[in-house]
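Example 9 (inverse folding). The structure is encoded as follows.
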């Protein structure tokens, strides 16, 4: 019975921890994606200028 109670407590805490981790991962991914998109946009624009305005 005691072991079952401990497992129940862990089950209650576990999803919360996972939720926090997922939020951090989601935020980090969004920041990285945005940075990479901006970077690729700058590179593409730079290459476009090199090709067409050289």
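The amino acid assigned to each position is listed next.
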């Amino acid at each position: 019975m005691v072991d079952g109670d401990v497992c129940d407590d862990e089950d209650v805490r576990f999803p919360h921890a996972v939720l926090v981790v997922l939020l951090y991962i989601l935020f980090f991914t969004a920041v990285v994606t945005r940075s990479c998109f901006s970077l690729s946009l700058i590179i593409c624009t730079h290459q476009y200028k090199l090709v067409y305005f050289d």
